[in-house]
Known about the structure:
Helices cover 43% and strands 11% of the residues. By secondary structure, it is α/β, with parallel strands linked by helices. The radius of gyration is 17 Å and the shape is globular.
Amino acid sequence: MMPPAAIVTDIEGTTTPISFVHRVLFPYARERMAAFVATNHPALADVPEPRLETLLGWMDGDEKITALKTIQGIIWAEGYESGALIGEVYEDVAPALKRWARAGLRLYVYSSGSVAAQRLLFGHSSAGDLNPLFQANFDPRVGPKREAASYGAIAMGIGLTAGEVLFLSDIEAELDAAAQAGLKTCQLVRANDGTLASTRHVTAADFGEVAAAFGLARG
């Protein structure tokens, strides 16, 4: 198997514990949502009245709505910049990303969170500022994560054939869509996240196992 030329990684359940989002980020935004609505920020323009109830309802349903993601990102930005929030990444992630970048792999992020939220997490991570390792970030504006066309658009956007790109995620349906578009795929099965292993994709417990499975630089 030829090693990939680029890696596109998911965040939640892949680089970052699922619990971080639900235990830290979501409660932080929820506690500050009423105060944010009271500011009448321009980001609220696409939120139907009653705005607070709508936003909290979207959060309760874990809706992937751009307006909600944008507002959460604004609130989180204040938390990261104040030091109240630190982005959690698994211990194996930063060393692997640095090795891969040094070896010439092109690294990208594709997550349901907004690009701004992605960059906040990696820019203020427990392993330091990881943003310089990534060449670009993608969010649902490129397309839904469970549709093959989204992955085709990413491959085209970065100037590679689909077969040159490896997509990392914990979600089988996302990997199915990426594989349908022609990407290489690997499921992260993190013990702490309770991920059910796929029978349709290569699986790995951490980024070290990803490297071993796809012939990537290893420590």
